[in-house]
Amino acid sequence: MNSIEIRDLNFSYGENQVLKDINLEIKEGEFVVIIGSNGSGKSTFIKNLLGELKPQTGYVEILGKNIADYKDYHDIGYVPQMSVAQKIAFPITAREMVVLNLYSEFGFFKFAKAAQYKKADEILEYLGLLEHKNKPINELSGGLQQRAMIARAMINNPKILILDEPTAGVDEASRHAFLKSIQKLNDDKNLTIILVTHELDEVMEFANVDSTYEIQDGVLVKKFKGGEKC
Fold first, then answer.
1. Domain count for the chain
2. CATH number at residue 155
3. Regarding beta strands 76-79 and 16-27, do their DSSP bridges make them parallel or antiparallel, or are they unpaired?
4. Please, which residues bridge with residue 35 across strands?
5. pTM of the model
6. Beta strands, E only, 109-199
7. If residue 153 lies in a helix (H) or strand (E), which one and from where to where?
8. What is the domain extent for residue 166?
9. Based on the number of CB atoms within 10 Å of its own CB, is 46 exposed (0-12), middle (13-18) or buried (19 or more)?
Protein backbone atom coordinates (compact mmCIF):
# COMPACT_ATOMS: atom_id res chain seq x y z
CA MET A 1 0.00 0.00 0.00
CA ASN A 2 1.19 3.53 -0.77
CA SER A 3 1.46 5.81 2.24
CA ILE A 4 1.76 8.80 -0.07
CA GLU A 5 0.88 9.24 -3.73
CA ILE A 6 1.42 12.49 -5.61
CA ARG A 7 0.30 12.99 -9.19
CA ASP A 8 1.04 15.92 -11.54
CA LEU A 9 1.36 18.40 -8.67
CA ASN A 10 1.97 22.02 -9.61
CA PHE A 11 2.12 24.92 -7.19
CA SER A 12 2.77 28.63 -7.72
CA TYR A 13 2.98 31.76 -5.61
CA GLY A 14 1.39 34.21 -8.02
CA GLU A 15 3.35 33.94 -11.25
CA ASN A 16 6.28 32.18 -9.57
CA GLN A 17 5.92 28.44 -10.17
CA VAL A 18 7.63 26.66 -7.28
CA LEU A 19 6.68 22.99 -7.89
CA LYS A 20 6.46 21.56 -11.40
CA ASP A 21 4.70 18.32 -12.36
CA ILE A 22 5.66 16.43 -9.19
CA ASN A 23 4.96 12.68 -9.27
CA LEU A 24 5.89 10.44 -6.35
CA GLU A 25 4.87 7.17 -4.69
CA ILE A 26 6.07 6.28 -1.19
CA LYS A 27 5.18 2.82 0.10
CA GLU A 28 4.30 1.98 3.67
CA GLY A 29 7.41 1.72 5.87
CA GLU A 30 9.79 3.41 3.42
CA PHE A 31 12.45 5.90 4.50
CA VAL A 32 12.63 8.69 1.91
CA VAL A 33 14.99 11.67 1.90
CA ILE A 34 14.34 14.97 0.09
CA ILE A 35 17.27 17.30 -0.59
CA GLY A 36 17.61 20.59 -2.43
CA SER A 37 19.21 24.01 -2.20
CA ASN A 38 17.60 26.91 -0.35
CA GLY A 39 14.67 28.25 -2.36
CA SER A 40 14.31 25.07 -4.42
CA GLY A 41 10.78 24.39 -3.13
CA LYS A 42 11.38 21.91 -0.30
CA SER A 43 9.28 23.73 2.31
CA THR A 44 6.49 24.33 -0.20
CA PHE A 45 6.56 20.62 -1.02
CA ILE A 46 6.18 19.75 2.68
CA LYS A 47 3.29 22.20 3.09
CA ASN A 48 1.50 20.54 0.17
CA LEU A 49 2.05 17.14 1.81
CA LEU A 50 0.57 18.42 5.07
CA GLY A 51 -2.41 20.02 3.34
CA GLU A 52 -1.37 23.52 4.44
CA LEU A 53 -1.19 24.57 0.78
CA LYS A 54 -3.46 23.50 -2.06
CA PRO A 55 -1.89 22.68 -5.44
CA GLN A 56 -3.13 24.49 -8.53
CA THR A 57 -3.22 21.19 -10.40
CA GLY A 58 -2.69 17.55 -9.45
CA TYR A 59 -3.29 15.93 -6.09
CA VAL A 60 -1.74 14.48 -2.95
CA GLU A 61 -3.14 11.28 -1.44
CA ILE A 62 -2.32 10.17 2.10
CA LEU A 63 -3.12 6.52 2.85
CA GLY A 64 -5.46 6.42 -0.13
CA LYS A 65 -7.35 9.64 0.67
CA ASN A 66 -7.01 13.04 -0.98
CA ILE A 67 -5.27 15.40 1.43
CA ALA A 68 -7.91 18.05 0.67
CA ASP A 69 -10.53 15.81 2.31
CA TYR A 70 -8.28 14.18 4.89
CA LYS A 71 -9.61 14.16 8.44
CA ASP A 72 -7.37 11.61 10.21
CA TYR A 73 -4.56 14.04 10.95
CA HIS A 74 -3.33 11.84 13.80
CA ASP A 75 -1.98 9.55 11.06
CA ILE A 76 0.61 12.21 10.18
CA GLY A 77 3.35 13.27 12.58
CA TYR A 78 5.32 16.42 11.82
CA VAL A 79 8.66 17.61 13.20
CA PRO A 80 9.51 21.19 12.17
CA GLN A 81 12.86 22.89 11.97
CA MET A 82 14.70 23.39 15.24
CA SER A 83 13.97 27.12 15.20
CA VAL A 84 10.32 26.37 15.98
CA ALA A 85 11.21 24.62 19.25
CA GLN A 86 13.59 27.44 20.15
CA LYS A 87 10.78 29.98 19.88
CA ILE A 88 8.81 28.37 22.72
CA ALA A 89 9.17 31.14 25.30
CA PHE A 90 6.46 30.31 27.84
CA PRO A 91 7.36 27.93 30.68
CA ILE A 92 6.48 24.41 29.61
CA THR A 93 8.26 21.16 30.35
CA ALA A 94 9.17 18.55 27.77
CA ARG A 95 6.47 16.27 29.18
CA GLU A 96 3.80 18.97 29.02
CA MET A 97 4.72 19.87 25.44
CA VAL A 98 4.40 16.24 24.38
CA VAL A 99 1.07 15.65 26.13
CA LEU A 100 -0.42 18.81 24.59
CA ASN A 101 -0.55 16.97 21.26
CA LEU A 102 -3.30 14.83 22.83
CA TYR A 103 -5.51 17.88 23.32
CA SER A 104 -8.29 16.24 21.26
CA GLU A 105 -8.64 13.70 24.08
CA PHE A 106 -9.03 16.21 26.90
CA GLY A 107 -9.74 19.62 25.30
CA PHE A 108 -7.71 22.82 25.02
CA PHE A 109 -8.92 24.36 28.27
CA LYS A 110 -8.79 21.27 30.44
CA PHE A 111 -5.97 19.41 32.15
CA ALA A 112 -4.51 16.18 30.88
CA LYS A 113 -5.27 13.09 32.95
CA ALA A 114 -2.99 10.38 34.30
CA ALA A 115 -3.60 8.18 31.23
CA GLN A 116 -2.38 10.92 28.88
CA TYR A 117 0.72 11.60 30.99
CA LYS A 118 1.45 7.87 31.07
CA LYS A 119 1.30 7.82 27.28
CA ALA A 120 3.69 10.77 27.12
CA ASP A 121 6.10 9.11 29.54
CA GLU A 122 6.14 5.93 27.43
CA ILE A 123 7.21 7.71 24.24
CA LEU A 124 9.71 9.87 26.15
CA GLU A 125 11.25 6.74 27.62
CA TYR A 126 11.33 5.06 24.20
CA LEU A 127 13.32 8.03 22.87
CA GLY A 128 15.65 8.18 25.89
CA LEU A 129 14.19 11.41 27.27
CA LEU A 130 12.45 10.30 30.46
CA GLU A 131 15.09 11.83 32.73
CA HIS A 132 14.50 15.20 31.04
CA LYS A 133 10.70 15.13 31.15
CA ASN A 134 10.29 17.78 33.87
CA LYS A 135 12.84 20.20 32.46
CA PRO A 136 11.65 23.35 30.65
CA ILE A 137 11.81 22.68 26.92
CA ASN A 138 13.74 25.89 26.23
CA GLU A 139 16.48 24.83 28.67
CA LEU A 140 17.24 21.59 26.82
CA SER A 141 20.00 21.35 24.25
CA GLY A 142 19.04 21.66 20.59
CA GLY A 143 19.36 17.92 20.07
CA LEU A 144 17.15 17.08 23.06
CA GLN A 145 14.58 19.66 21.97
CA GLN A 146 14.29 18.00 18.59
CA ARG A 147 13.95 14.53 20.12
CA ALA A 148 11.18 15.96 22.30
CA MET A 149 9.54 17.22 19.11
CA ILE A 150 9.68 13.67 17.75
CA ALA A 151 8.00 12.44 20.94
CA ARG A 152 5.30 15.08 20.49
CA ALA A 153 4.74 13.97 16.90
CA MET A 154 4.71 10.26 17.84
CA ILE A 155 2.32 10.39 20.80
CA ASN A 156 -0.68 9.87 18.49
CA ASN A 157 0.93 6.78 16.90
CA PRO A 158 1.07 8.21 13.38
CA LYS A 159 1.66 6.07 10.31
CA ILE A 160 3.73 8.75 8.57
CA LEU A 161 6.42 11.02 10.05
CA ILE A 162 7.45 14.14 8.10
CA LEU A 163 10.57 16.01 9.23
CA ASP A 164 11.60 19.39 7.82
CA GLU A 165 15.36 19.91 8.27
CA PRO A 166 15.11 18.86 11.92
CA THR A 167 18.87 18.82 12.61
CA ALA A 168 19.78 22.23 11.17
CA GLY A 169 21.92 24.05 13.71
CA VAL A 170 22.32 20.98 15.95
CA ASP A 171 25.78 19.71 16.96
CA GLU A 172 27.22 16.60 15.34
CA ALA A 173 26.73 14.18 18.26
CA SER A 174 23.11 15.29 18.65
CA ARG A 175 22.50 14.90 14.91
CA HIS A 176 23.78 11.33 15.03
CA ALA A 177 21.60 10.48 18.06
CA PHE A 178 18.61 12.06 16.34
CA LEU A 179 19.10 10.03 13.15
CA LYS A 180 19.45 6.81 15.16
CA SER A 181 16.13 7.62 16.87
CA ILE A 182 14.45 8.09 13.49
CA GLN A 183 15.85 4.82 12.18
CA LYS A 184 14.66 3.02 15.33
CA LEU A 185 11.12 4.27 14.70
CA ASN A 186 11.32 3.13 11.09
CA ASP A 187 12.53 -0.32 12.14
CA ASP A 188 10.34 -0.91 15.19
CA LYS A 189 7.06 0.61 14.01
CA ASN A 190 7.32 0.26 10.20
CA LEU A 191 6.83 4.01 10.18
CA THR A 192 6.95 5.81 6.83
CA ILE A 193 9.60 8.54 7.06
CA ILE A 194 9.95 11.62 4.83
CA LEU A 195 13.05 13.58 5.85
CA VAL A 196 14.01 16.91 4.30
CA THR A 197 17.69 17.64 4.96
CA HIS A 198 20.93 19.27 3.83
CA GLU A 199 22.98 16.56 5.58
CA LEU A 200 22.66 13.75 3.02
CA ASP A 201 26.02 12.07 3.66
CA GLU A 202 25.32 11.92 7.38
CA VAL A 203 21.82 10.57 6.88
CA MET A 204 23.11 7.85 4.55
CA GLU A 205 25.64 6.84 7.21
CA PHE A 206 23.16 6.49 10.08
CA ALA A 207 19.89 5.54 8.36
CA ASN A 208 18.74 2.85 5.94
CA VAL A 209 17.33 5.14 3.28
CA ASP A 210 15.15 3.57 0.59
CA SER A 211 15.11 6.48 -1.87
CA THR A 212 16.59 9.97 -2.16
CA TYR A 213 15.07 12.74 -4.28
CA GLU A 214 16.31 16.22 -5.08
CA ILE A 215 14.11 19.21 -5.85
CA GLN A 216 15.86 21.17 -8.59
CA ASP A 217 14.12 24.40 -9.58
CA GLY A 218 10.77 22.91 -8.60
CA VAL A 219 11.31 19.57 -10.35
CA LEU A 220 11.60 16.35 -8.30
CA VAL A 221 14.52 14.19 -9.48
CA LYS A 222 15.35 10.74 -8.11
CA LYS A 223 19.02 10.63 -7.11
CA PHE A 224 19.49 7.37 -5.20
CA LYS A 225 17.71 4.06 -4.79
CA GLY A 226 19.02 2.79 -1.48
CA GLY A 227 22.68 3.75 -1.60
CA GLU A 228 23.01 3.43 -5.38
CA LYS A 229 22.92 6.38 -7.77
CA CYS A 230 20.06 6.44 -10.27
1. 1
2. 3.40.50.300
3. unpaired
4. 214
5. 0.90
6. 160-164, 192-196
7. helix 142-154
8. 2-229
9. buried
